[in-house]
Amino acid sequence: MSVTVTDNPMGSRYEARIDGALVGVCEYELADDTIIFLHTVVADEYEGQGVGTALARSVLDDARARGLQVRALCPFIRGWMARHPEYSDLIAQA
Q1: How far apart, in whole angstroms, are the C-alpha atoms of residue 63 and residue 38?
Q2: Sheet holding 69-72, edge to edge
Q3: pTM to 2 decimals?
Q4: What is the pLDDT of residues 33-61, one digit of tens each?
Q5: In this predicted model, what pLDDT tens digit does every residue of 68-91 receive, in sequence order?
Q6: Is the pLDDT reported for residue 1 higher than 80?
Q7: d(Cα 34, Cα 49) in Å, to the nearest integer?
């Protein structure tokens, strides 16, 4: 199973797809040099299959590539970052 994650800037969300079917989203807001992750959801039938991890890794890698700081209001992204300290450099300082 291959998860493809793309940014949908018009919808202010990243979208995870498997074989073209939408299986998860991560909603965000942009503010200056910071991306604020608001909410992440994965379709029930795809939970526990790596979709959330693919979303988290993709959105954070994209933030890094774009030079953005991260504010994770979304509990899923915040928890994922806590378990993956290699992304701690992205956390926006207050």
Answers
A1: 14
A2: 4-8, 13-18, 21-31, 34-42, 69-72
A3: 0.94
A4: 999 999 999 999 999 999 999 999 999 99
A5: 999 999 999 999 999 999 999 999
A6: no
A7: 29
The single-letter DSSP state of residue 88 is G
Q: Which two tokens stand for residue 16?
A: 């995870």
Mean pLDDT of the chain: 96
Matching residue, tokens 């990243």:
14
Please list, residue by residue across 10-42, b when 16 or more beta carbons sit within 10 angstroms of its beta carbon and e when fewer do: eeebbbbebeeeebbbbbbeeeeeebbbeebbb
Dihedral sign for Cα atoms in the order 47, 7, 58, 85: negative
According to DSSP, the β-strands at 34-42 and 69-72 are parallel
Under 8 Å between Cβ of 75 and 41: no
